[in-house]
Task: inverse folding
């Protein structure tokens, strides 16, 4: 019976249309595409930065990389591109937007998310697995995770040190905008488990309305059994679950 | 329309970590050759712009800084405007 229900549920679910933005210097778009198209069997297409519009998209993903060589400030030049104003409109109308790594930096430059990502406290580019805690699982991005669950997701960045003015910290706490924090394997957000100096160990946060998420860790690099880690897959599945 | 040469000096706010400044300071301390301290590293942007007059020029540049060139969460800036020699 359970199996039958599952099949019925799957039949009811439609394929979600994902759009992945490509800027000059993006380099994680193919990883995202692979997870969405080949692992999760959803519709997915690339959207070039120079386009004036996109249609029939349920979720926009801004992938990682070094858009425009990280010149001026990370994400600053990408935020001025033609497609960025369309992303802003889409987000302001409630559309689902996820920015991963450089995508997170672009979302802060677009002012769709508060704060900014500074150079890592250690000054090093850090590429390693980290544990992050699901601080809020009542979102369209995390509804299939457990509250306070520690998941293992890799990071790879030089500018991931999240900074926010003191007067805005209370506001993001109050609105439950903190979605992921760096933690140890037991789920404790400690000083030692913070790889880059982010304020409040923040690894990912949403906007006030909860339809835009930015995160520094790469869930698309942890969504396939063959890669030895599937902890990130539920983030994409949560979005599919929410939209359906 | 007149032509103006513009220089914008951008510095990290005092309250914000300046890793480049810290790295320079650490290096200076380590080699003990100079007694210099309080390093901060910023950037300088130069460009030319056409505008009716200096005041309108300043308004446009402030908007450009706010929209693009400067992130006021972490940076402060100074604008210098000079008449361009034709």
Result:
């Amino acid at each position: 019976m359970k199996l039958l229900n599952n099949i019925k549920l799957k039949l009811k679910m439609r394929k979600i249309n994902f759009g992945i933005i490509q800027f000059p210097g993006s380099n994680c778009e193919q990883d995202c595409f692979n997870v969405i198209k080949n692992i999760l069997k959803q519709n997915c297409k690339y959207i070039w930065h120079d386009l004036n519009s996109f249609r029939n998209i349920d979720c926009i993903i801004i992938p990682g990389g070094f858009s425009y060589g990280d010149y001026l400030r990370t994400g600053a030049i990408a935020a001025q591109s033609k497609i960025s104003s369309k992303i802003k409109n889409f987000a302001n109308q409630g559309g689902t937007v996820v920015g991963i790594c450089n995508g997170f930096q672009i979302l802060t430059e677009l002012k769709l998310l508060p704060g900014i990502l500074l150079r890592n406290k250690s000054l090093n580019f850090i590429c390693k697995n980290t544990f992050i805690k699901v601080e809020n699982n009542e979102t369209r991005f995390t509804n299939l995770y457990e509250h306070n669950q520690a998941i293992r997701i890799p990071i790879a960045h030089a500018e991931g040190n999240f900074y926010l003015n003191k007067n805005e910290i209370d506001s993001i706490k109050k609105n439950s905008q903190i979605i992921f924090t760096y933690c140890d394997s037991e789920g404790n957000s400690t000083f030692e488990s913070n790889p880059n100096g982010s304020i409040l160990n923040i690894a990912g946060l949403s906007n006030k309305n909860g339809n835009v998420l930015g995160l520094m860790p790469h869930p698309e690099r942890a969504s396939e059994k063959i890669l030895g880690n599937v902890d990130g897959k539920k983030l994409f599945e949560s979005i599919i679950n929410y939209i359906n | 329309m007149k032509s103006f040469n513009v220089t914008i000096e951008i510095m990290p706010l005092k309250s914000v970590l300046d890793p480049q400044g810290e790295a320079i300071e650490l290096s200076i301390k380590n080699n003990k050759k100079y007694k210099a301290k309080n390093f901060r590293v910023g950037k300088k942007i130069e460009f030319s712009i056409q505008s009716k007059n200096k005041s309108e020029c300043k308004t446009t540049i402030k908007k450009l800084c706010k929209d693009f060139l400067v992130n006021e969460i972490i940076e402060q800036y100074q604008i210098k405007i000079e008449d361009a020699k034709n």
